[in-house]
Amino acid sequence: MFNETIALKGALTITKNDEVIVDTHNLVVTAGKGLVAGCLSGVSTPITKMGVGSGSTAAAAGDTALGTAIDTNALTVSGGTLSGAAVTYACTWAAGDGTGAITEAGLFSASDVMLARTVFSVVNKSASDTITISWTVTIS
Predict the structure, then answer these.
(1) How many independent structural domains does the chain possess?
(2) What is the span of the domain harbouring residue 129?
(3) What local confidence, expressed as pLDDT, does residue 40 receive?
(4) Are the beta carbons of 84 and 48 closer than 8 angstroms?
(5) In a domain, 1, yes or no
């Protein structure tokens, strides 16, 4: 019998004003696993946006949205950048955009299906700050 397991794992880095302030992992949610399966069959829409929020409830497999959304932006490269078995997504919140006490982030398809969510220690973004999130999802 042939048996193989495929796993999705993600990691993200948040920079604020060009300084790395968060380096953490994420949870690929159940809807995200369905999204990946849909991509294999050619029926899913690509990941095109990232959201940030102020929710503090731990990420759970059944999540379909951020706990408390602050802002959602289009990815720097729609669909991400593929390298081997990894896709890297990047998004920037410029000065005046997405301000507040950010404690969570999520990746979403064009049709608002969540791929992954993470919760982290607070990142306070003032109106003069710029933050960039770089998020890599690896299939292993």
Answers:
(1) 1
(2) 9-139
(3) 78
(4) no
(5) no
